[in-house]
Each structure stands twice: as C-alpha cells, then as structure tokens.
Specification:
By secondary structure, the protein is an alpha+beta fold. The protein has a single domain, classed as Gcn5-related N-acetyltransferase (GNAT) (Aminopeptidase, 3-Layer(aba) Sandwich), CATH 3.40.630. It contains five helices and eight strands. It has an eight-stranded mixed sheet with strand order 1-2-3-4-5-6-8-7, sandwiched between helices. Helix 3 runs antiparallel to helix 5. The chain is globular, with a radius of gyration of 17 Å. About 3% of the residues have low confidence. It comes from Peribacillus simplex. This is Acetyltransferase.
Length: 217
C-alpha cells in the first residue's frame, strides 16, 4: 500500500488521518452543518470514530489515502479529504514500461497509481469560502501528477450539489457527464453523480490557475 504522506502548504497542512484525530475532527464537523445536505460528514464522536476506522481500513487495503486538513494559522483541524479509487493500470510491453507490465493492481510508492480520485472532502463551516479548498486541491493534484505521474484525476459529486459542482469547475476540471441512479444519497434515496476530471496534459494550465488563485486569497 501507499505510505502515509504529509502535504504542506502556506495555509494548510494535509496530515495522514489517524485515530488520534477523533476529537478534533468531530469538533470541526460539529460547526454549522447546514451545508452538508449532500455530503456524508460524521456527526458526533461515535460516527467520527467509525468514519476514521473505515478510512484506515480502506487505506490498509490499498484503495484510499486519507487526510485531515489542518490550518497553519490556527493549528486547528478544519476538515478531511482523501485520494480514493486508486488504480494501477496493467500496461502492455512498451518502451515506457520496461518490465512489460505494471507490478500489480494495488498501488505502492514504487508502483504508484495510474489514475486517482480526490473526494470525500468536507470542511468546517468556518473554513468554507476561504482559500482552504484551493490550496488543498493544489497540494493533492501536484502530488498526483508530479509525484505519482498519474494520468487522470477524477472528482465527482451529487448532481444536485450546485455549490460543489461550481467549486470543481473552478478548479479547471472538465465535466464528463452524469451517472444516473449511481449510489445511495447522503440525504436518503438514490443519487445521480456528476463526474469531472483533469488529465495530465491539462495539469500545467490548471496548476498555474490554482497558483494564481492561491496568491490572491
């Protein structure tokens, strides 16, 4: 599996999620919850404990890399995000793949993911509409494209979540379409999911735009 990694920025630090984060993560989630109607955010200590346990189990299985988001100026945890759906493509023999194929489907530091998703993202009310999300995405996209050499990063959200869709589009992600009747919705029922992506060729322009936005924050 991928080893936990810390991603440091000017405004935030993305720390590997651990069981020691229960209290602070619970406190962040307990601020005004009115914006969480379309987002699964743990409510209370017991839910937060299960949330962390589930994320760490998925990490041990190689499918996610979960973080908590800490603001540098206040030293407070203000949310959570993660890499998920990490996948290593099995490639045919080529000059770009001297061994003839990738080393396995579970990504490791020596065999990083070919594609990834950024998701399960939520922020405390006090961190919303600040520069937090821009820097988090810049840090994570840079790690995916510059360190892992990932070829695509996916972002998705409940199709009804106009606020989230606007934020994703502002990153420079391209809308791919809506997968209908996709998964259970956080507010009950079944949700349609809007899919977006950024591919490697688009990353330099996206990085420059995010950097400029970060400088203005």
């Amino acid at each position: 599996m991928l080893k936990p990694v810390t991603l440091r920025g000017h405004l935030v630090c993305l720390e590997p999620m651990t069981v020691d984060h229960v209290h602070e993560l619970c406190a962040a989630a307990s601020e005004d919850r009115s914006t969480y109607i379309y987002t699964k955010v743990p409510n209370g200590r017991e839910e937060t404990e299960r949330y962390i346990e589930s994320a760490l189990k998925s990490h041990s299985e190689g499918s996610v890399l979960p973080f908590v988001v800490r603001r540098n100026d206040t030293d407070r945890i203000v949310g959570s995000t993660r890499f998920l759906d990490l996948e290593v493509f099995q490639l045919p023999p080529s000059s770009a793949s001297p061994s003839g194929a990738s080393k396995g489907t579970i990504p490791t530091d020596d065999n990083p993911p070919t594609v990834a998703e950024i998701g399960n993202t939520w922020y405390a009310a006090s961190a919303q509409r600040t520069g937090v999300n821009t820097e988090c995405k810049l840090l994570m996209l840079a790690h995916a494209f510059d360190v892992w050499q990932t070829i695509r990063v996916t972002l998705k959200t409940d199709a009804r979540n106009d606020r989230s869709r606007t934020a994703i589009q502002r990153l420079g992600a391209i809308f791919e379409g809506v997968r209908r009747a996709h998964i259970p919705a956080s507010d009950g029922g079944i949700r349609d999911t809007a899919y977006y992506s950024i591919v490697a060729d688009e990353w330099p322009e996206v990085r420059n735009d995010l950097f400029q936005r970060q400088q203005r924050s």
